[in-house]
Amino acid sequence: MLVHTRKGRWAVWAVFAVVCVPLFALPLLVIATASLSTNWSGVLPSGPTGVHYASATRGESLAALSVSLQTALLASVLALAVGTWAALAAASLGRRGRRLMDALFMLPVAVPSVVVGLAVLVAYSRPPVLLNGTRWIVMLAHTVLVTAFAYQSVSAALARLDPAYAQAAASLGARPWYVLWRVKLPLLLPSLTAAAGLCFALSMGELSATMMLYPPDWMPLPVQIFAATDRGSLFTGSALAVVLMAATSLVLLAVSRIRTEASYR
Amino acid sequence: MPEHMMSEHAISEHAMPEHATPEHTGARGPVGIRFEQVTVAYDGTAVLEDFDLEVGAGEVMALLGPSGSGKTTALRAVAGFVRPARGRVRIGDRDVTDLPPHARDVGMVVQQYALFPHMRVADNVAFGLKARRTPRGQVAERVAEALEMVGMGGYARRYPRELSGGQQQRVALARALAVRPGVLLLDEPLSALDARLRSGMLAELDRLHRELPDVCVLYVTHDQMEALTLADRVAVMDRARLREVGTPRALYRAPRGSFTASFVGSANLLPVTRAGEGKVRFGDTELRVATPGPGDGGAAATLCVRPHRIVLGDGGANVLRGVARAVQWRGATHRVALEVAGHEVVADVPESASTPRVGDRAAVSFAAEDGVLLDD
Ligand SMILES: Nc1ncnc2c1ncn2[C@@H]1O[C@H](COP(=O)(O)OP(=O)(O)OP(=O)(O)O)[C@@H](O)[C@H]1O
Ligand SMILES: [Mg+2]
Fold first, then answer.
1. Cα–Cα distance, B53 to B173 (Å, whole number)
2. Coil, helix or strand at residue B113
3. Do B285 and B249 share a domain, yes or no?
4. Does B260 map to a domain?
């Protein structure tokens, strides 16, 4: 941690505990606690129970979890494919072309997601492409939102990739596709999995654009959480939130286990 | 059989010498490299200008020059990683100027080796073979053969990160040689190694070339020792231009320009004036030189004399007298710097009792054939 005296190290840990624990850990702890109680009127909650979890993993809630997982999976796979392809294309463009691509893919990040949601809604509400009222409009909006992140992390990784590898491969007689498949993509794999994880997590938590688009038969978990807390069922909402958190973390953990030889570089 | 196919068949049979199997020399027999007026520019600045050079089949050509002189650029023009603004590059009888790198049939080893970190040594070496769709059965055999050639047979299962710098260098060489390219491009392949390893690898490269006499090698270096040891001919480069080409011996014995004279070996460059057939004046001393030529009296010229061709005493044809300004001990020799007629003359003399001390007056001399008049 760049601090070498024992006292200094303790001081750094103390600051870390004071600043980061309340900021990041405490709210999550509160939710976890709330999800296990029936009543919270004093300083501490009371009436420990597992009933919220029982309902959070059944029926409508379970369906919402499955909707979220499917949406996030499809959106992050599509985003990774499109983002990687666009980043590779941008890398082979000139300086001006690359700037244009960067700007294009910055848009969904720069524009508030409510606006992106509205834009998607308006654009696909009438023929020829009529997606409104179907699950596909949710998936489309999520893909648009997270592709920007995929594009950015892949193009950052591409910029760091030493061109000597691709050149060595080409001079050995490998065609561009072969170089891409056997050299560039394997070397980029650590960044690709990181990007996929990021996209997945973002999509799992997306609420604002989804709110404007979701059809009755495709209600993702964040919307369910919002509806629960809106009704006043704070404890049920908390249990759902914990389920969302756990599901996302599990998937991220699995993705981070995809180790490649390239990551030992 | 259509006529054009017949004639093609006939030609290919004649053009192919019996011993050269197609894979051996990139399907074309031994090839050389030819640069024709190649100019490369970055943002309007020429980094290689009107570069004209021919490297014969089986020849080892060293590109020697200071940092930034355009050596790597010339090499990359052959490999296809820079596009010349003007001029053509030929490999054998093919004009490769407009071909993509993968279609050029060159082997290349760069300074940082660029071994693929995610592949084992054997897969690195097999890469070019697989990319060229070499039949599966042959790949393993050729990989083993290439690794054996560089003495790395026992390391096939390792990853590049598990090898030392010298071993990585050998693997990079094996990877380039496995595809049996017609030309081999080496860009300062030894510069990442320490001095001892470097001289070992130099001997190894020399042996490899004797084993593969048909491969044309372009060897970029800024180390004159490497160039003089390894190359059949040396091309001296300076500031984007080719200065001189010749055998190491010719460049050393009789450089034509002062840049070559001082870059290849060390040299005394003395300002002289011409004074008739085979004679020049240096200060008020008249010197005899071997270089024939018009003795248009009074014209300024530069005389090159190698320090180790100068001896102590006044026994030679040309005698210079002056005061010793510095004496350095260099093991087998002393380097004596004399001030003669306001100029410094350096002599490498063997250790002896008569070596002058700083401040002594001394005479040195050299033979007429050791004085080379330069063009500039
Ligand atoms: N991609 C590039 N963009 C702009 N200028 C470049 C580029 N590559 C090389 N140059 C310039 O071209 C000139 C020649 O470069 P080159 O790499 O050929 O030199 P070199 O003789 O190989 O030198 P060294 O011994 O240091 O490797 C240098 O002045 C360098 O700054
Ligand atoms: Mg260079």
1. 25
2. coil
3. no
4. no
- A128 cis-preceded (ω within 30 degrees of 0): yes
Domain end, chosen from B202, B225, B253, is at: B253
Query: DSSP states of B166-189 as a string?
Result: HHHHHHHHHHHHHT--SEEEEEST
Is any ligand 1 atom within 6 A of the Cβ of residue B69? yes
Pairing label, strands B33-42, B86-91: antiparallel
Residue A260: pLDDT band (50, 70, 90) is low
C-alpha distance from A86 to closest chain B C-alpha (Å): 23
Residue A161 near chain B (CB below 8 Å): no
Pick from B76, B118, B179 the residue to mutate for testing the A interface (most A CBs within 10 Å). Answer: B118
Q: In terms of domains, do A33 and A163 share one?
A: no
Non-local CB neighbours of B179 within 8 Å, separated by 6+ positions: A172, A173, B105, B107, B128, B129, B132
Helical H segments across chain A, by residue range? 6-20, 26-34, 51-56, 59-91, 95-110, 113-123, 135-160, 163-171, 176-179, 185-205, 208-213, 221-231, 234-256
Domain that holds residue A103: 52-262
Distance CA B261, CA B267 (A): 6
pTM: predicted TM-score of the whole model, two decimal places: 0.79
In Å, how far is B105's CA from the nearest CA of chain A? Answer: 7
Cα–Cα distance, B29 to B60 (Å, whole number): 17
In terms of C-beta density within 10 A (0-12 exposed, 13-18 middle, 19 or more buried), how is residue B218 classed?
A: buried
From the CA of B237, give the closest atom in ligand 1: 21
Residue A134 CA, chain-centre distance (Å), reads 22
Whether residue B288 sits in one domain with residue B244: no
- The interface pTM score, or ipTM, of the predicted complex is 0.78
d(CA B159, CA B151): 16
Range of the domain at B338: 266-374
CB A183 within 8 Å of CB A242? no
- Look at the block and give the residue holding tokens 């004639």: B7
Tell me if residue B207 falls in helix, strand or coil: helix
Domain count, chain B: 2
Positions of chain B with pLDDT lower than 50, given as ranges: 1-26
Distance from chain centroid for Cα B21? 29
Cβ pair B12, B22 in contact under 8 A: no
Per residue in A159-209, pLDDT (tens digit) is 888 889 999 999 999 999 999 999 999 998 888 888 888 888 888 888 888
Which candidate, B5, B9, B14, B28, places its Cα nearest to that of B214? B28
From chain B residues 131-160, the ones with a CB under 8 A of any chain A CB are 131-132, 159
State whether residue B74 is helix, strand or coil: helix
Q: Please provide the DSSP assignment of B306-325 as one string.
A: -GGG-EESS-SSEEEEEEEE
The residue length of chain B stands at 376
Q: Rounded CA gap, B272 and A38, in Å?
A: 106
B115, containing H or E segment: none
- Ligand 1 contacts CB of residue B63 (under 6 A): no
Residue A187 lies in a domain: yes
